[in-house]
């Protein structure tokens, strides 16, 4: 991806997960679904982009952090799907819905029933409430891909249409909660940093990756370790005390 002076990020996502997802899509030979991620928090946008790019058949074509950026990038890039936040700094994400020709899945912390009704009435295909895991978004996007494929052929029977809609709106499998008393968003960012790491990381390294203090990282890592989500080992240097290292548990 490439950055722009106005804060936009365009082009194919080039993280490790993106390379894996793109390679899988190429091997499968199917059409790639281009996704524009719109979120005011750049760290959350990057995490969601990593979620998307790790799925075979999907590619992240851009990241936008304001409604103005999203409007411009949607016109320029013509994505197939937009992951849209409600809370944007210049205007509500819902204001973009009538202008977007792409399919839209809301990905937002806005949980007010009126906002949900407005989004769905405005044309959003689905609504995913933050915080959510990579698995939850993966289920939604996989269902969307099947729904999209079902509607890409010839004339539909009622049974085929009903099946496509059931696929799109199938309930999610149960998702694990964040450790008690901790922010689910921060816990998710730390979890994704560890999942993407190619080797165990120290609390200081995790703090740098996520953009939080070392003390905060240590507190969250301890909670994840207690819940069995991370494995803790010790690294012994030439001198001084051993350092704790954290790796995501494959369970």
- The poorly predicted ranges are 15-29
Topology order in helix (H) and strand (E) letters: EEHEHEHEEHEHHHHHEE
- Averaged pLDDT, please? 82
The quaternary organization reads as single chain
Strand order of the largest sheet: 1-2-4-3-5-6-7
Q: Helical region count?
A: 9
Q: Give the termini distance in whole angstroms.
A: 32 Å
Largest sheet, strands/sense/barrel = 7 strands, mixed
Radius of gyration: 19 Å
Q: What is the global morphology? A: elongated
- Structural class by sheet pairing and helices: alpha/beta
The tally of strands reads 9
- Per DSSP, what share of the residues sits in E-state strands of 2 or more residues? 15-25%
Q: Determine the fraction of residues in helical runs and give it as a percent range.
A: 40-55%
What's the helix and strand layout?
Layout: E1 2-3, E2 9-10, H1 16-28, E3 33-38, H2 42-53, E4 58-64, H3 67-77, E5 81-84, E6 103-108, H4 113-121, E7 126-129, H5 134-150, H6 158-168, H7 184-196, H8 203-210, H9 214-226, E8 230-235, E9 243-248
Parallel strand pairs: 3-4, 3-5, 5-6, 6-7
Antiparallel strand pairs: 1-2, 2-4, 8-9
Concise structural overview:
By secondary structure, the chain is α/β, with parallel strands linked by helices.
Describe, in plain words, how this protein is organized in 3D.
- It is a single chain.
- The protein contains 9 helices and 9 strands.
- The protein has 251 residues and is of the alpha/beta class.
- The strands form 2 sheets. The protein has a 7-stranded mixed beta sheet with strand order 1-2-4-3-5-6-7, with helices on both faces. Strands 8-9 form a two-stranded antiparallel sheet.
- β8 (230-235) and β9 form a beta hairpin.
- α5 (134-150) runs antiparallel to α6 (158-168), α7 (184-196) crosses α8 (203-210) and α7 (184-196) crosses α9.
């Amino acid at each position: 991806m490439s950055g722009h002076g106005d804060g936009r990020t365009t082009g194919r996502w080039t993280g490790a997960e993106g390379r894996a997802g793109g390679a899988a899509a190429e091997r499968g030979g199917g059409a790639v679904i281009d996704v524009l991620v719109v979120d005011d928090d750049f760290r959350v946008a990057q995490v969601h982009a990593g979620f998307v790019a790790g799925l075979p058949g999907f590619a992240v074509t851009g990241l936008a952090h304001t409604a103005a950026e999203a409007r411009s990038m949607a016109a320029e890039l013509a994505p197939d799907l937009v992951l849209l936040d409600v809370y944007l700094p210049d205007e509500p994400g819902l204001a973009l819905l009538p202008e977007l020709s792409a399919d839209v899945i809301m990905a937002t912390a806005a949980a007010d029933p009126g906002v949900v009704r407005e989004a769905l009435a405005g044309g959003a295909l689905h609504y995913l409430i933050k915080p959510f895991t990579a698995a939850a978004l993966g289920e939604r996007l996989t269902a969307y891909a099947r729904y999209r494929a079902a509607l890409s052929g010839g004339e539909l029977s009622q049974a085929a249409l009903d099946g496509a809609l059931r696929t799109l709106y199938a309930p999610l499998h149960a998702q694990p909660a964040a450790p008690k008393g901790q922010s689910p968003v921060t816990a998710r960012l730390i979890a994704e940093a560890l999942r993407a790491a190619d080797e165990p990381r120290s609390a200081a390294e995790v703090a740098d990756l996520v953009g939080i203090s070392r003390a905060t990282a240590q507190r969250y890592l301890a909670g994840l370790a207690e819940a069995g989500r991370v494995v803790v080992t010790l690294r012994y240097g030439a001198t001084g005390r051993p350092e704790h290292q954290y790796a995501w548990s494959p369970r």
